[in-house]
Amino acid sequence: MATLKDLADKEVLLSGGHRACSGCGFPITIKMVLSQVDTPVVVGCATGCMEVTTTVYPYTAWKASFIHNAFENVAATISGAETAYRSLKKQGKLDKEIKFVAFGGDGGTYDIGLQSLSGAMERGHNMVYICYDNEAYMNTGVQRSSATPRATNTTTTPAGLESTGKHQYRKDLTAIMAAHNIPYVAQAAISHWNDLVRKAKKAFEVDGPAFLNVFTSCRLGWAIAPEDAIDAVDGGVQSNFWPLYEVENGEWRLTYKPKKKLPVADWMKQQGRFKHLFRGDYSQVLEEIQDDVDHRFAQLCKRCGVEPEEVH
Amino acid sequence: MAVQLDRKMVALTGNEAAAQAMRQISPDVVAAYPITPQTEIVQIFSTFVADGIVPTEFVAVESEHSAMSATVGSAAAGARSMTATSANGLALMWEILYIASGMRLPIVMPVVNRALSGPINIHCDHSDTMGARDSGWLQLYSETAQEMYDNMIQAVRIAEHENVRLPVMCMMDGFITSHGMENVILLQDKQVKDFIGEYYVDNALLDVENPSTWGPLDLQDFYFEHKRQQADAVIQARKVIQEVADEYAKLTGRHYGFLEEYRMDDAEVAILVINSTAGTAKYVVDQLRSKGTKAGLIKLRVLRPFPAEELAQAVSNLKVLAVMDRAESFSGLGGPLFSESKGALYDADKRPLMLNYIYGLGGRDVTPEMIESVYQHLLKVAESGRVDNPYNFLGIRD
Question: Which of A189, A271, B217, B391 makes the best surface tag, with the fewest CB within 10 Å?
Fold first, then answer.
């Protein structure tokens, strides 16, 4: 297991000076994930904040080979680069060890890029897909995605006199990816670096596709202070809203047990995107959200072969 | 298939000829998705992969959007990469067509022309690739399976030329050429290998010791210059297309230019046409010539870059020209080739009267009688010296 000191000694493939906001979650995700690659890596990135802030021509923050193609096709693009690698290697035109990783936000992964991702995973490319999930289209100005939680105030699901924000619950993408029966699928969070880097290492080590869904915050979209970026993600983990688990060759396993389960409303209360729910009597909505979290967690525990009560 | 390789002339369908060209080009990666009438090309090609005849890695992607996306990733990685498509498949690739050309990736793609939905129709017209004419891809059109084969091999050289570095699409007519069998003369495998050379792309992703960033955010201060460079590359391609054609002629004895002039020397009336209808029309021209009518034909091979000078030269002694469009552009003024040709000839010192015929949409058969009726129309216009109706539909029920 890597120590923080080990991680600090690793070369960081993303240089400083990029234009992401202070308190942004994705640079943390990139640094943690790429700290676990022992070979050179080719990085792909969907259109979004990550691409926009790290590659403003003629500058680049990337010290690794990097390609951005479009919004919905990073999985297909990296699957092409990985195939080029296999072809050239087979023909003896190349003899290096190279790994392939694709990054996409929740919009580029859960929504517009889902088909491309599903296809690449089904075809078995030796690549890692990292979704940095901050629960909305942040780059275009906080619009709802299928990863946005119920009752979130976004610019396309604004809270108003007749609405509490987004009406639907979020899509369970990690389970959808697990249903692809690929060697490794995991859900992680930037608040739990040890768990995240361990999962990233496994993802790079497996032979075949791996998918990592990493919970990250967005200070603008979540309406939080930059210094609260990690704590805000942590609350999602402690409330079981975002449980940490992995599915390794079909075996489901919880990788973290919150010491004391936090009520989901306590986590939501810390974020401006839910503040409308605490300015009136929305206890019914909050109760339903808690029920949904509990129900999903119970389902997950069943898959992992543990009782929810055992977890706390 | 392997038994045919030692024979010089073989009977092949257009799709088989395209697949043979791909076998000889032997790309490192092919990423493709089935769509009628192109499907056979990648189907045949995948048998070459299955039998180990080519070293290619074949990626059976889940859509044409991913076919073009994976091809972009693969070409940028440093591998010679191809795909193939038709109609709606090309439409689904649309967004990435512009990215492939904007990244200056020398991808070669056979496109089997088919009507674009809706309503859905699987038969030939040119609405698919006419729509893609502004996507930054070079476009080569083919009358026959032989021309398709020849165009594809030349396209590799054109696309990868250091002064060009642009993707190229090679077209033939769906079913008419793709599924019709013809005699095709194939080059020897080694001749093709030597002719096209090794694939090279600057700043390949797999050159991990020298990492580079592809597809950055290009804002107001640089995007315009990059587009200008791309436009310059298209202009440069004019020279390269002819150089490659001349070199290919030395190898094969088959000469190609931007357009083919058929019995144009003393022609007074002529039609401008693309792809397989040129064959039917040449037969009609011969018939008319035998009766003493001064009829000619111009077949366009290269639509991008548009050969304005060559066209102006070809029509300089003509009285009337009919531009034949197997696609609508819904401008209310005629088809895309008509408006392009008119624009290209505006500055010509001598230009003919011009009119447009939309024909053969959705695979509507084009008979010699129909083509002859176009020439009869042209002769009347030549006599009157006046075009009453420039916007006509051929072989349509009222």
Answer: B391
- The answer to whether A99 faces chain B, any CB pair under 8 Å, is no
What pLDDT band is residue B1 in, cutting at 50, 70 and 90?
very low
The predicted-structure confidence for A34-57, as pLDDT tens digits, reads as follows 999 999 999 999 999 999 999 999
* CA–CA separation, B238 and B142 (whole Å): 18
pLDDT in tens, A252-284: 999 999 989 999 999 999 999 999 999 999 999
* String of DSSP letters for A127-151: -EEEEEE-SSBTTTTSB--TTSPTT
Smallest Cα distance from A309 to chain B, Å: 42
* Residues of A in Cβ contact (< 8 Å) with B218: 57
Residue (of B304, B276, B300, B275) closest to B131 by Cα position: B304
Query: Measured between CB atoms, does A129 come within 8 Å of chain B?
Result: no
Which among A80, A78, A136 is positioned nearest to A111, based on CA atoms?
A136
| pTM assigned to the model | 0.97
B356 with B381: CB under 8 angstroms? no
Nearest by CB to residue A83, choosing from B57, B214, B222, is B57
Q: Between these two residues, A312 and B137, which has the higher pLDDT value?
A: B137
pLDDT reported for residue A312: 60
| Chain A residue at shortest CA distance from B198 | A93
The 3-state DSSP class for residue B341 equals: helix
Interface check B63 vs A, CB under 8 A: yes
Of A58, A84, A118, the CB nearest to B29: A84
- Tokens 């600057």: give the residue: B202
| DSSP secondary structure letter of residue B258 | S
Query: Which of A62, A74, A88, A112 is the mutation pick for testing B, counting most B CBs within 10 A?
Result: A88
**What's the pLDDT tens digit per position in B87-120?**
999 999 999 999 999 999 999 999 999 999 999 9
For B223, nearest residue in chain A (alpha carbons):
A57
* pLDDT at residue B3, rounded to an integer: 42
Please tell me the distance from the alpha carbon of residue B245 to that of residue B239, in angstroms, as a whole number: 10
- Residue B118's H or E segment, with its range, is none
**What angle is formed at CA B181 by the lines to CA B178 and CA B183, rounded to 5 degrees?**
120
Cα gap A22→A152, rounded to integer Å:
23
Q: What is the mean pLDDT of chain B?
A: 97
Whether chain B has a CB inside 8 Å of the CB on A64: the answer is: yes
